[in-house]
Amino acid sequence: MDADSFNDLALRVIAGEATDTDRQALEAELSANPAHREEYEQLKITHDVLCTTGPMAEAARATEPELPSYRINELRTAVRQHFGNQTAARKSPGGLISALRWLIAGGGATALVVLLVFLNLANRTVEIGLYKSDTVRNGDASLVPQDVPSARVVTFDQDAPFDQWQNQPLAWNERAKIWVDNEHDLLHVVRRIDHGHVSTETQPLAPTNEGQREQIRQVVESLQK
Amino acid sequence: MRTDGELLAALRGGDQEAWEETFRRLYPSAFAAARHPLASLTPTEAEDIAIEALTLLLPKVKQVAEFDELRLLVITIASRKAISEKRRQLADKRGGGELTSLDALQDDENIRFEPAEQVAGRLNPTDLRDLSRLLDAALSGLEPRNAEILRDFLVHHLSYKELSDKYKMPVGSVGVSLARSLEKIRTQLKAAPKLWKELVSFLR
User: Which residue of A has its CA nearest to B189?
Assistant: First the structure.
C-alpha cells in the first residue's frame, strides 16, 4: 500500500468515517507492515490535537453573538461578590496597627459580638421582587402577599426599576431578597450568609403557579430559620 | 476608550464598568469555545457555560500579564467545561438507561472525549496562542482550497460527506486531500518541537 492510500485509510478510521472493511484492511496493513503503526499513531495524535485546539484557536476570532443583556446582572453580582470580599480583606490592618490590635483586642471583640447580635436581631426582612404582570398569570395569581406573610412582596411595572432593585446591595436590615426570572425559569436568591457576606443562588423555577408559590414559601421559610 | 493596559489595571481593582466592558468583549470567544463541535451543546447550554467561564476569570485576573491572555484563558476554560458537560450528559443518559448499546456508548465517550479533555484541560493560554500562530502559518502554506477543506474538517468538524457536498468533489478525494494536508501540517508543527512534545504529552 502506498503512503497516500495508507494515510487516507488511516484518517478514515481515525475520523470515524471508516466501514468495517476499511477497519479490517487497516488492521491487516498494520500487522503486515509494523512501520505503519508509528505512522498511524502520529496521524491520530495530530488529528486529536488539532480537532480539539482548532476550534479553540478559531474562537479567539469570534465577534458574535453579543453578551445577552439578561445575563449582565449575574455577572455584576459575581464581580461585586469577588471584589467585595477582597476589599474587606485589604482593609485588615497590618504592621504597627497589627500590634496595636492586640491592645484593643478585648474591646474590639466585645464590640464585634455586640454588632453581630445587633445585626442578627435586625436582619429579618426578606423581600420578593416580581413584575406586576406576574402576580396574575393565566387567570391565576402566581404569588400574592398573603402567600408569604412573613416576607415583603415588591412589584415592578418596568425593567429598569426592577433591574435597579436586583442590583442594589442588601440593606443593613435585610436578610435576603428573592426574584422570579420567568424568562429563564429561574428563582434568584440573594442572602446574607455571615458577617455581612452575601451569597447569590439560582434554582430552577417550579413549572406551575402552585409549584412556584410553594417553592417561594419554602425558600422564605428556610431563610428565616 | 481605555488601552488594554489601563483596562487590566481597572479590572484588578474591581472596577465594575471595566469588568462589564471585558465581559462584552470576551463573550463572543467564550460562547464560540463553549460551542466546541466535540461538545455539540445547544446554544442555551453553551450560553450558561460561557457565562460561568467569564465569572471564573475574576480570581485569575491578577495572574495575567496582558489583557489578551484573558481571552485565551476564557477559551480554554469554556472549551474544557463544554466537553466535560457533554461527557457528563452522556454518562447521565447511560445511567438512566436511555440507550441500548451501553458498551458502544462508553467506547464512543472514551474515544471522543478523553483526548479532547486532556488537551483542553492542560492547554495554557500561551500554548494556545503559539499553536494558533503555528496553525495559521501552516494553513497558509497549503493551497487555499485545501486549507479551507482542512479548516472545515478540523475546526467545524464537517464530515467527509458534508465536505464532498460543499466542495463538489468525490468523497474518495476528500480523504486523500485531507490526509495530504494533515501530513503537511504535522511537518510544520514539528518545527516547534517543544510545543508539539507538550501537546503530545497531554494525550499520553
Answer: A46
Q: Please, what's the b/e burial string for A173-189 (b: 16 or more CB within 10 A of its CB; e: otherwise)?
A: ebbbbbbbbeeeebbbb
C-alpha cell at B29: 470567544
Q: Domain B131-203 is of which CATH architecture?
A: Orthogonal Bundle (1.10)
In angstroms, what separates the C-alpha of B95 from chain A's closest C-alpha? 22
pTM of the model: 0.64
Side chain identity at B43, as an amino acid letter?
A: P
B183 lies within 8 A of chain A by CB: yes
**Cα A198 from chain centre:** 15
Q: What are phi and psi of B13, to 5 degrees?
A: -85, 0
Predicted confidence (pLDDT) per residue in A99-123, tens digit: 555 555 556 555 555 555 555 545 5
Query: Are residues A203 and A105 part of one domain?
Result: yes
Give how many domains chain A has, as a whole number: 2
ipTM above 0.90 for this complex: no
Binary contact (A55, B32; C-beta < 8 A): yes
For residues B166 and B152, the answer to whether their CB atoms sit within 8 Å is yes
- B179 and A7 in contact by Cβ < 8 A? yes
> Is the separation of the CB atoms in A152 and A136 below 8 Å?
no
